[in-house]
Amino acid sequence: MPEIVLPEVELNIYTPKDPVEATIAENYICSAEGSPNFVRHITFDITGTDLVDRVKVGQAVGILPPGEADNGRPHKLRLYSVSSPNEGEGGKRHLISTTVKRVVEEIDGSLYTGVCSNYMCDLKVGDKVRMTGPSGKRFLLPENKNDFNYLFFATGTGIAPFRGMIMELMKSGYNGNVTLIFGCPYRTDLLYKDFFEKMEEENSNFQYLKYISREDRREDGTKNYLHNAIKDQKSTLDPYLKSDNTLIYICGLKGMESSIYHHLALQGYPEYLVLKGDLLEKSPEDWEWEEIKKLIKPSPRIFEEVY
Ligand code: FAD
Ligand code: A2P
Fold first, then answer.
1. What is the mean pLDDT of residues 111-123?
2. Which CATH class name applies to 20-135?
């Protein structure tokens, strides 16, 4: 197994007490027409700030929405993953992007709209935002990225870092294999679908698998969640899941990681996991959900950002 050398990254160049102003350069919808979800690709112009060339894909930036929370204090910052590659959105060093889903929920019979996501989704080109960061020092591509294969699991806006990472990897000189497994509720929520399909057409070492939870049911009637790919695609994934230079990255909804761990174990890949307690004595078929959540930790070959 090659050593995983993570790059040294900068952290908190700007803090909530001392944020920087960034300008909206783009803000367009990237969920398809008819989707019940509203997800937007938002690009910030960071010209003249100390963030230029110092925010890496896999890191997040903080946004401070204006106004006050119910407790009378200023709203807290929210984090958003960078979805542009290290060279900047469209190769422009002064542009970084993210992918934001409007949080809209019915709570106790009333409509609740998330503070920061809706603030950001409403912003117009030229508007200013208060930004902090960057944050995150582990969910990164290794410096020796060409030494590895990658299996990327994303749900919803968890796709953001993988868009940038895949751009990084496919730039040139990379001969490994990358599989992106994306889970979303409906086909209208396949974020950046055209981009990934084109990538797949143009690169024989890139595979794009879609898991549509609500439209495509499993034979047993359950939702078609993305961890099923480990079983469904065993014939194609097995050779590189078995090879010792494969890394797994997981980003999106908190909770998705536990099902992925379980399916890795069920399909015979315990080397990606650190098992504790009773799990060591039992076969994965007999593991209880509570045990899976408590007694499995990811090995250093798994990177995750779940929220
Ligand atoms: P909030 O107003 O904070 O509400 C969030 C939830 O809290 C609501 O859905 C509701 O259930 C509950 N809630 C809060 N206040 C009330 C209230 N008064 N009454 C009832 N319920 C309430 N998101 C993205 O879209 N894209 C990303 O790339 C992304 N990356 C992230 C990276 C990291 C490392 C982390 C930690 C998070 C990331 N997020 C991302 C999530 C993001 O930070 C925000 O949490 C998200 O946008 C919701 O923020 P909000 O202010 O819109 O919602
Ligand atoms: P569902 O909502 O049908 O239960 P989005 O952020 O756009 O809503 O997408 C998140 C996707 O992740 C949805 O398809 C959602 O399915 C799915 N999902 C929800 N919980 C899990 C989980 N524990 N493991 C894997 N996928 C999940």
1. 98
2. mainly beta
